[in-house]
Write a structure and sequence with these properties.
By secondary structure, the protein is an alpha/beta fold. It is 45% helix and 14% strand. Helix 10 packs parallel to helix 11 and helix 12 crosses helix 13 (259-276).
């Protein structure tokens, strides 16, 4: 706990907006990431680490998670030579919050992963291919699946689609609908470019929110604030929710069939604002 941002440490992962990926081969970056405003931090043992450094990176992660740090960990795909080693090493790490499974394409991959960890360890399924997208509903309903995340860059490589929001709308929408069917928290979008500035990250986060996704991966600590801002209730929404709840508390009467749905939305905004520390900001 000494390493972790206190606000973020107290936030349930089902509400996490920003998911910061940290290269597991660079343990000097672990503490700064955990001290940042990222809602969730993921030590990345997969894409960020070349094969000849996997063992050293895994050792660094286990050491960190055994000496006071808490984090999620991205493990290698089930079809690699590293998957079983990753899970065996992490299964007894006291600071493990959950794992992100790279290249998830089938529901049983999530279940097999969960079975190799301590009971109840959540698995975040990273979907990065056409097959994964088409299997998203089944993956969302698999035992062990906690949330779905979108591996945009690998999906684009697999399918040849561009980065235009319209080209990616089907895949994003599929993850959103699958999450709802599977009764999971909102889907997590892929990251902005590592060098994207604040305006670009805010624009990307607006797309994420418009698609119904409630989280976003990040490759840089400098982008976390914009992701949190872009995926939180806006100032206008907070003001509207305040007014709606105040009026209801003062005895406002139900005027039409939209009143109760609006009241429920106002309460949801208030609950999120409380969780994110925005309500009295």
């Amino acid at each position: 706990m000494a390493f972790r941002n206190r606000r973020a440490a107290n936030l349930p992962a089902k509400l996490s907006r920003s998911w910061l990926l940290v290269n597991a081969a660079k343990p000097e970056d672990f503490a700064p990431a955990l001290a940042s405003e990222a809602d969730s931090v993921i030590f990345d043992m997969e894409a960020a680490v070349p094969d000849d450094k996997k063992d050293a990176a895994r050792d660094a992660v286990v050491e960190a998670l055994s000496t006071g740090m808490t984090a999620w960990v991205r493990v290698n795909g089930i079809d690699t030579d590293f998957w079983a080693k990753d899970l065996a090493a992490l299964s007894k790490a006291p600071g493990l919050r959950g794992v992100m499974l790279a290249m998830t394409e089938k529901p049983e991959q999530v279940t097999y992963t969960a079975m190799r960890l301590q009971a109840g360890t959540p698995v975040l399924a990273l979907i990065e291919s056409a097959l994964g997208i088409e299997s998203a509903t089944a993956i969302a309903s698999a035992p062990g699946t906690f949330r779905l995340a979108f591996g945009v860059n690998d999906f684009r490589k697999d399918t040849g689609v561009s980065g235009d929001p319209l080209a990616l709308a089907y895949a994003r929408g599929k993850l959103v609908v699958a999450s709802r069917v599977g009764k999971l928290p909102g889907a997590i979008d892929g990251p902005s470019a590592p060098g994207a500035d604040a305006a670009e990250v805010l624009a990307d986060s607006a797309i994420t929110a418009s698609m119904g996704m409630t989280g976003k991966l990040s490759l840089s600590r400098t982008q976390v604030d914009e992701i949190n801002l872009g995926l939180s209730p806006s100032t206008d929404e907070l003001s509207w929710a305040h007014d709606m709840l105040d009026a209801h508390a003062a005895g406002a009467t139900v005027g039409d069939g939209s009143y109760l749905p609006r009241l429920a939305r106002a309460q949801k905004i208030a609950d999120l604002a409380d969780s994110y520390g925005l309500w009295n900001a």
